[in-house]
C-alpha cells in the first residue's frame, strides 16, 4: 500500500467538542469518573447522613476489587505474544476485547516502546476486515495519542505489511500494530505488536 493512502488519525473524530485537545478522550474519561465518584458520595451521604469511615472503606475496597478484576481480564487477553479476545457478541459470547481495553493496552505499549527507544515514536496501525476493526482501530489510535504520540492509520492491511512498515521506506515507522485475530472466528479480534527488531514476545519485543 502506497504511503499516499495512509492517513494521519484525526483526533476530532472522537473529541467531545472541538475545543477539547487531542487528549479529549482522556479528559472526558476524567469527567465521567468524577461524576461517578460524586454520585457515589451522594449515595453514601443519604445512607449514612455523612460519608462515614465505614462507607469510605467500602468504596475503597470496591475500587480495589474492580482494579484486580480488570487486571485479571487484561491478563486473560494475552495469547502467546498477541492480544486476542471476543470483540463482537455474534455468537452469544461475552465481549472482553472492548475499545476501552484496546486503548489502554496500546497506550501502555506505546509508552514502554518510547521509553526503551528514548524518543517519541511514529506508530503505524493496520487492521483486517473484521467488523470490529474500524472501532478498534480508532481505540488503538486513541491509545497512541494518550501516550503522547501520533499514529498513522493504514486501514485494511496484512500482517506482513505492517511489520515491513517498520523496515522499508524512506522513513520506516518505529513501531506498528496489526488488529487481527488471524484464523479465529469473526467475533474475535486482537493486536499484534511490531518494532523493526521483530514482533513482540512474552518477554517484550
Write the layout of secondary structure elements.
Elements: E1 7-8, H1 24-48, H2 53-76, E2 78-79, E3 82-86, H3 99-117, E4 123-127, H4 133-146, E5 151-156, H5 159-164, E6 175-179, E7 188-195, E8 198-199
Parallel strand pairs: 4-5, 4-6
Antiparallel strand pairs: 1-5, 2-3, 3-7, 6-7, 7-8
Helix pairs in contact: 3-4
List keywords for this structure.
205 residues; alpha+beta; Alpha-D-Glucose-1,6-Bisphosphate, Chain A, domain 3; eight-stranded mixed sheet; 5 helices; 8 strands; 43% helix
Question: Quick gist of this model?
Answer:
The protein is α+β, with helices and mostly antiparallel strands and 205 residues long. It has 2 domains: 51 residues; 118 residues, Alpha-D-Glucose-1,6-Bisphosphate, Chain A, domain 3 (3-Layer(aba) Sandwich).
Architecture overview:
This protein folds into 2 domains: 24-74; 82-199, Alpha-D-Glucose-1,6-Bisphosphate, Chain A, domain 3 (3-Layer(aba) Sandwich), CATH 3.40.120. Helices cover 43% and strands 17% of the residues. It has helices spanning 24-48, 53-76, 99-117, 133-146, 159-164, and strands at 7-8, 78-79, 82-86, 123-127, 151-156, 175-179, 188-195, 198-199. Strands 1, 2, 3, 4, 5, 6, 7 and 8 form an 8-stranded mixed sheet that branches. The longest helix is centred in the N-terminal third of the chain and has 25 residues, at 24-48.
